Amino acid sequence: MLKATVKARDDVDIKNYTNLVDYLKRLSIGFTKAKVKVLSAEHIQQFLREAPDIHYLVTKVVLIFSIAGACKSLELTEITTKDIEDHGEMFLVKITDKNNKTVRTFTIHGQLYKIVKKYEELRTPKAKHDRFFQNYQKGKCTCQPIGRNKFGSMAVDIATYLGLPEPSSYTGHSLRRTSATLLTDDKRAQILYNC
Fold first, then answer.
1. What is the Cα–Cα distance from 60 to 115, expressed in whole angstroms?
2. What is the pLDDT along the chain (195 residues), one digit of tens a residue?
3. From the CB of residue 92, how many other CB atoms can be counted at a distance below 10 Å?
4. Taking the model in full, what pTM does it have?
């Protein structure tokens, strides 16, 4: 990461500086990368059930999309109203991967459908963009779209609300990793179908 940053920013290739490379290697001995924390199925259900919509409705919807579709923060910013089809008691969401042009689909139904529908009805038609996620404050949506950094901070908001230890260690990647963890534990279906 350091090599790439220095190369991009200052156009300096540090591999030519052997003493510096050796020094950095010595500094990194014993370093272990911290794993991103994940939410449990019980935490997700508690947040969806108890968090007040006046403050957390958009966070609930982002959590639903992240769990149901294993969405990245960047994918969430790119979801448009055209990507979401309302089929009565179910939303069909289509996400196009820009790199390989494949389409991934997932559904949202039951109680989760009602939460997303409530948010969808609050979206303002005055926005000059068609992005699905609009800024949400005090029970109303504004014209401003939600950016990648805001999506990244929502896991911290969830962990803080739930009173989890070290809420700052929940990152934007936590929601996607939570989805994968729940899928391997067969608990994602339990949340999606029994919430």
1. 8
2. 677 887 788 888 888 888 888 888 888 887 776 677 888 889 999 999 999 999 999 999 999 999 888 888 889 999 999 999 999 999 999 998 877 888 889 999 999 999 999 999 999 888 889 999 999 998 899 999 999 999 989 999 999 999 999 898 888 888 888 888 887 766 655 665 555
3. 14
4. 0.79
Domains (ranges, CATH) in the chain?
1-33 (no CATH), 41-194 (1.10.443.10)
Per the listing, tokens 């996620």 go with 133
For residues 147 and 96, is the Cβ–Cβ distance under 8 A? no
Distance between CA 35 and CA 10 in Å, rounded? Answer: 31
DSSP string, 18-61: HHHHHHHHHHTTT--PPPPP---HHHHHHHHHHS-HHHHHHHHH
* Distance between CA atoms of residues 172 and 149, nearest Å: 8
